[in-house]
Amino acid sequence: MMLCPNCKHNNLSGAMFCSECGAQLSGKDSLTTQNISTDQLTASDLPTSNDDVYQPFDGSNAWGSIFLLDTGQVLPLSVKNEFTLGRISEGQPIMPDIDLSPYQAYAGGVSRLHAIIKRDGKRILFMDLGSANGSYINGKRVQPNDEQYVNHGDIIALGKLKIQILVKN
Prior knowledge:
Elements: E1 2-3, E2 10-11, E3 64-68, E4 74-77, E5 82-86, E6 98-99, E7 113-120, E8 123-128, E9 135-137, E10 140-142, E11 148-150, E12 155-158, E13 161-167
Parallel strand pairs: 5-6
Antiparallel strand pairs: 1-2, 3-4, 3-13, 5-7, 7-8, 8-11, 9-10, 9-12, 12-13
C-alpha cells in the first residue's frame, strides 16, 4: 500500500496517482527517458511512400472519435464497434486496440488495458477494466467493470489523461 502525501489515503502499490484526490504518488524523478540511436539507420531501413505507415487514415467512415485534450490529437473510431484503450509495454501479451502510449499515457497513469469504449446502436458505452488509477466521466469516478453510457462531448479521464468523446450523428 502507498500512502498519499496529500490526503493520506491508502492506495494500491504501484499506483501513480491517488485514487481519492488524484495527487501524484511517485516522484517525477522516477520516470526516465532513453535515447534511441539512429546512427546505424540507412535509407533502405526507412519505409517507402508506398508503405501503410505513411498513408493518411481516412476517418470519413468513423462513427465517433476520441479527442485528446492535452495534445489536440483526434483518433477516429471506425470499422469496429468496440475498442480497448490502454498503453503498450514491452512483453505485454495482450495489446489494446487504441494505444495511448504516444500521448504520455504512462505518465498520466493509464493502465495497459484501462477501459473499453463501444457502440451499442446509437448509444456509446464506456467501462473501466479495473485500472490501477481509475476512470472518471465528467469528473465522477466510474466503478470498475460497470458499463456507463456516455454522450457526445463528455470528458473521460483515464487516470490523468483526459479525452473527449465525439460522436457522429
